[in-house]
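This entry is retained here.
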Amino acid sequence: MELRDRIAQALKQAMKDRDQGRLATLRLVNAAIKDQEIAARGSDDAAALGDAEIRAILAKMVKQRNESVRAYEEGGRVDLAERERAEIAVIEEFLPRQLTGEEIKAAIDRAIADVGAASIRDMGKIMGKLKERHAGQMDFGTVGPQVKDRLG
């Protein structure tokens, strides 16, 4: 089943269950997808977004909410932080499972071997290979320094 269909089905179920928190989050997800499609209309690739693009939108939404949780906790607003965490849980249902630390290390080693990387100059190739294989399964902001450490 396509990711967009899974989200629509979850939205309908949340309406039936009268689950207001889940419903609000799923409506935000749909709005973000529609915003991206509207923005793409002006460009050449005006086709509907595929699963990879939707996953990227969802990953961005999770990242934004994690930043909000941090800010709310620093400001002493635990109630708002909990609401953000609940939204994260709903959004993550539609993302692939995140890799563990050991799985990330193994993926980096495999990418280095596949690319035949010898120095830090090959970092772009390695990151490209990781993004191709593991999009949505790891935070590339934290993986970059790990790749640098392996090469350096």
User: Anything to note?
Assistant: The chain has two domains: 3-92, 101-151. The chain has a mean pLDDT of 89.
